[in-house]
Amino acid sequence: MFRKVLVANRGEIALRVLNACKELGIRTVAVYSEADRNSLHVRFADEAICIGPPRLSESYLNVPAVISAAEIADVEAIHPGYGLLSENANFAEVCRASNIKFIGPPPEVTRLMGEKEKARQAMKKAKVPILPGSDGILSSVEEAQEWAKKVGFPVILKAKAGGGGRGMRIVRSEDELPNLYHAANTEAANAFGNGELYMEKFIENPRHIEFQMLADEHGNVASLFERECSIQRRHQKLIEEAPSLQVTPKLRDEIGRTLCRCLSEIGYQNAGTVEFLMDAERHLYFIEMNTRIQVEHPVTEAITGVDMVKAQLRIAGGERLDAILPSKLEIRGHAIECRINAEHPRKFTPSAGQISVFNVPGGNGIRVDTAQYAEGVIPPYYDSLIAKLIAYGLTRDEAIAKMERALSQFVVQGIETSISLHQEIFKDQAFREGEFDTGFMERFLAARTEVAK
Question: What is the average per-residue pLDDT within 213-235?
Answer without folding.
Answer: 96
